[in-house]
Structure formats: C-alpha cells, structure tokens
Amino acid sequence: MNKLEFANFKQTAIHHARLRLRLLDARRRAVTFSHQPDKDALQRIYVINLDRRPDRWRRVRRELDRFRDRNGERLSSLVRRFSAVDARYMEAGPDLSVLIPTFTLADQLTVDPNPLLRIDAEARAREIQMTKQEIAVALSHIEVWRLIADGDVPSALVLEDDVFMGYGFAGALERTWRSLDHSQNGEGFDLLYLAFNEVGDVAPVAPGKSLRHLDSPGIWEASGYVISRDGARKLLDALPVFGPIDLWLNLQFERMNAYAASRPIIEQRIDEPSTNSYSVLPVLSQVGVITREKPLLPTAKQLPGPVIAVGDIDTGLTALGTALSMIGYTCLSDLDCLPTAEMEALLVGQGDRAFNAYVNIGSLDADAIDQIAATHPAARFIATSGQIPTPAATPNQVLRLTPDIKDKWAALAELLGVEYPAFPYPSTLDTGMRTLGNTAPSTFRHANTNLAFDSGPWILPEKHRLPGRVVLEADSPDPHVPAPPHIIWTTNSRIDERIWTLRDDTFPSNMALFTPSNVTQNDDEVRLELRAESAVVRDLTSGAIASVAPYRYGRFRAEFRPSKVRGLVTGMFLHRNGPRQEIDIEFLGKDTTKMLVNVFYNPGPEGTKLEYGYRGTPTVIDIGFDAAADFHSYEIDWQPEAIRWLVDGEIVYERAMWNPTPIPDQPLQFNFNLWHSRSKEFAGRLDAKKLPSTAGIRAIEIRPALGTDVRPHVRFSSDVMNC
C-alpha cells in the first residue's frame, strides 16, 4: 500500500521536494550493478509494467538511465520488462493454489498494529475481499518470482513502474549491498527491501549500520526490493498468497532471511493519481480507526473537450454518458435539446458553459456538430452507431464506440488521454431522449439557505442549474425482479431483524461508535441513545439502525424526535458506498428549529469506488417549530426525476435533475442514527453535561417505487424550450 496517496499537505510537499532533490545527486555510478556475470553484483532488473502504460515504462527507463553500472553501461542494459497482469481482463477468479483472494482484519493488524484494535476472535473472523487491482498486482509479483527462481542470475531487483531513485541512491545501495551475506550455501539473504514504509514494531537500525534484519512484520510496500533466487523459491514454496502482496510478504519473514535498508532509497511517486483500490480502507473506516476522510476523485489531470456523442437508440448512449461522468466530465445526456444559453455558448466557443460533455442531445445535429468542431479545437466526437456521420476532425479526435467494441474503457481512455479507469464500465440501458421543459421552479413558504457546497464535476453552481421541472413516466415493474418490501412499522411491533440491522460500526467523521445495545424499545418509541462510554475506538457510543434491503426510488416517512444537544446530529437518510450516493434529513442539536437536507452524488454502477465529497450540497430549511419538542412526520420522496422533502405532509423543499446534482440512481439503504460530528463548525462543540441524550422514533413507512433493477423512463414536462 502506498500510504503517500493519503498524505497530508506537509508530507506531500516533502515528497515533491525529494523528487526534485534527486536530480542534484552527482553520483551516477552504481557499482552494485553489472551487466557482466559478477557474483557480487546485481545483474538483472525486472520492471512490472502494464501494457497500456508505455509512458510509465519510458519514464522508469529514463530514471534508471540516470545511473551507470560498474562498467559504465546504462542500467537499462540490465532491465527486463514484465507485462503486468491487468485487472481489467480478469474475468475469472485466481487459481486458489496460487492466490486466495481474501484475508482477515487480524492479518492486517499483524502487519500494521493499531492501538485502538485488538487481534481477537472478531478480528480473525472479519474477512476482507481483495480488490481486482490487488489480485492483479499480487499475480504479477508471483510471476516475476518464477522468472527469478528459474533464471540464470543469483538475485534481481524488482521494481514497480511508479518509482524513483532517491538522492544518494548509488552510495546508499552500495553500502547496504556490502553489508549483506552473499554466500552461495543457501543461507545468504533472501529478500532486501529498498522501498518501504515502516508501520509495525520493526527493530531500529543499529548505529553505523546500513541495514536491519526483519524478524517481525511491519513493512509496507513491495515497489522496490531485491530478491535472491533461493528467496524466490522459498516464496513460491509458501504459496498460496492470501491478501495484498506487501501484507503477505510480511508474514513470510520468519521463514526467510529478510532485510531492509537503513532508510528507503527507492520511493514511489505520487505526482500522478493511482488507480489502485485498497480493500482494507472501508473496513478500517467502519471499525473506526480512520478518522480523516480523503475524497477519491476522477483521476484526469486535464480533460479535453467538449465531448459530443451521438448515435442510435440502444447503442449504449446512456451508459456512455455515465462513463464520461465517472471519468470526471460534467455530462448532460439524453435530452431533445439544450437550454438556449448553453446551446449558444457551445456553438460560439464561449467558456462559460455548465457542461463539458453532451451525449444524445437532439438539438446537436450535423450542422451544429460541424460548427462545434470549428470553434473548439480540442473537441472530441463519439459515435455509437456506424452510420452516424462525424465532423471532418483529425482522427485522434473522433471515436466510433459501436456496441461490438469489447473494451470501451480502452477506446475512451485513448481518445481522451486519461488513465484507464479501475471501475467496471457501466451497462445501463438506453433511456432515450427526454424533453426539457420551461416551467418555473417551485416556491415554498419555508425559508431555505444553502450552506457551502462541495465543488466537483457533478455539482452545478447556481447560475448554471437547469431550468424547469420534470415529471415521471415509469415503466411497468419487471415481474422477474422482486420488489423490496413495503414496510409499515410502529411501536406496537418489535424491530424485526429480517428487516432492520442494528449497526455496530462508525465512519471517519463520527466521534461515536454505534453499538446494538444503544438501541432500545418501549411501548412509546425506539430510542437511539448517545452516551459517554469508552469503547475501543471512541469515547462515545450511540445507536443506529439500517434497512436490510436497499431501495431504488420510493417514499420514506418516519415520525421521530431529534436530540437537542449541541454537537449531536440526528439523521434520517438513504445511503450507499461504491459509488457514494446519499439523500439526507438531519437535525443539528444546536438548533432544532431548522432541518438540514443534503444530497451526495457520485456516478457509476455497483462497485465504483467514487466517494467524492465532504459537504455534499447542504440546504438548511426553517421549519417553523422546535423539532425536538415533539414527534413530527418527515418524509423523503425520491423519484427518478426529483427529490422532495416533506414535513407533516407538506412539501418544504424540492430538487430536480442537475439542481444542483443529478438524482441518485443506485439502490440505497434507509438509515437512522444519532452521532457526534468531529466538525465543530458543522454541529457545534459537544455539550457533554447533557449526555446521555436520545432521539426517538415512533413510526416508519417505506413505500418502494420500483424493483431495484427496473429502469425508469423519465420524460421532462411538455413545455419545450426554444433551443
């Protein structure tokens, strides 16, 4: 795991300084290497590199060629490129005799201990599924070990393709190499870490020594290490690997002669975004040891555009719009025309546009597309049908993404010059063109105020929000897709564990740990209680419940009474991760006369690890009474075309498509919780003297709109704009 991907500003600044400082290193003769068969020299370098990343291969060769071996030859004379296993082509699971794609929280804690967690029966039972990227990385390293084990050199340097040699590399490596035992009797060194991050109880380096022996776990990274032929054979004999490769290597130290340099002399770069996905991070977040969130953003540095996509129905247009959104485009799709101001700005080449990608827009006919090509030199054009004409632009600006193209991500990445996404390509059915209406926005008698919004590709500033309202025309439910249950619950019935889960986790910005014992029920209400109670990872405990079933659209109503304690937040909300989507009702204990509503939107199908946003798009509504004084009815009406929030049956607020976000479109779980926010700016300083505190729930009703896999057909209102 490259922990620098989660570094703070200071750590990142130091890293970039070291990246520049290496160029001032005057010593370029690395006498540890030799292209001659010298027994005391490194004679081979393997670089693990994806076929689709020739830029990284060229860069790492340039990095190595800053140095010469003991005979004056460039280090590239020793390099062998290994074509890395690519996660995008992994359809079947790995051979279980080679790799078991799971590990446990106990395995993680063995390598990276945390004072807040224990290695106990629960940690040993908590299984973590490796991501496809972790599996591909592990399989690549295993195949390199096979090459070394069967090869003609006594040892080799193994590098991933995102490394650089730090200042003083040649001298530090020479001192470290001389300290090793290079005996040929099978008892010499097996493994030497040159790139690493210390996280466990690793013994300190003795004064004046250039390396330390590793007899216990505690080293992250496998991006730069030397492995002997005997060491490679020992690792192959120990197969199968389980868990990420750097974790598993730690668990082999007791059977190997493993060493690490006194300091890292090879480092991983962070000057370009990574597509690695770390399976352990969501688990560490849930158990409460990650307390600082980091948004996972689209990885493109600079997106070319605008992007215009046209085609026939059922050729993948709606999926293409989702895919462009996942890359980081602000994409408008499946409309018969653009708003007048947007159309004019696009045609004349003005920069002040709401969107930078347009998919299946009826008003973008052949003449309009030719004009866009003339006024936007960086424009890109995509046709999903073979017979659709495209402008006479340069070939690298036009793509025919027809349904027969199997690897659509590869084609898009080449057209747009972006990193191949680590997420699955969407398979959404085509919606077809919808009609944009010119109806005035709704007005409400309750005052509302927007707080600070996140700034991102799926949030429009107020001046750019789409005009008009939308109406729903839903397809008939698919009889083969079971609809989620219609739930009516009151205090007359007990909490059914087949329908509700009592949560036993937390999240980074929550200062309380949820435990089932903090959810109690009497004849009048279900109580969520937050109390000052020391837990392993928090000093507060609280209660939360969540629906077992996810829902995709519907009406979610509850009668409840929030807590009135400063610093506490009472939430009724719909939520998911991967991608993160959320629709909130929250009451801040510092002022329960106001209701906060919020939407978090990230695009993509199930498994898309986009979790962008700390703030979301919060709006505060003055409801005209103190919600903490009594029970009232609150409702989220979530439909494909709009979200409406109701209080005691009255609509108090509404958001339509792209006002300011798209409408969440993935199945979400219904939740209640009571928590203490880490942000004093948001919720205020905790009034601990008023603890314990409770939030009460008296009734819940969930009326699902559709089955979770049913496609809604959305039509905008019939007042067509003059485009």
From TrEMBL:
<dbReference type="InterPro" id="IPR008263">
    <property type="entry name" value="GH16_AS"/>
</dbReference>
<dbReference type="InterPro" id="IPR013320">
    <property type="entry name" value="ConA-like_dom_sf"/>
</dbReference>
<dbReference type="InterPro" id="IPR002654">
    <property type="entry name" value="Glyco_trans_25"/>
</dbReference>
<keyword id="KW-0326">Glycosidase</keyword>
<feature type="domain" description="GH16">
    <location>
        <begin position="418"/>
        <end position="708"/>
    </location>
</feature>
<keyword id="KW-0378">Hydrolase</keyword>
<dbReference type="Pfam" id="PF00722">
    <property type="entry name" value="Glyco_hydro_16"/>
</dbReference>
<dbReference type="InterPro" id="IPR000757">
    <property type="entry name" value="Beta-glucanase-like"/>
</dbReference>
<dbReference type="InterPro" id="IPR044791">
    <property type="entry name" value="Beta-glucanase/XTH"/>
</dbReference>
<dbReference type="Pfam" id="PF01755">
    <property type="entry name" value="Glyco_transf_25"/>
</dbReference>
<comment type="similarity">
    <text>Belongs to the glycosyl hydrolase 16 family.</text>
</comment>
<protein>
    <recommendedName>
        <fullName>Beta-glucanase</fullName>
        <ecNumber>3.2.1.73</ecNumber>
    </recommendedName>
</protein>
<dbReference type="InterPro" id="IPR008264">
    <property type="entry name" value="Beta_glucanase"/>
</dbReference>
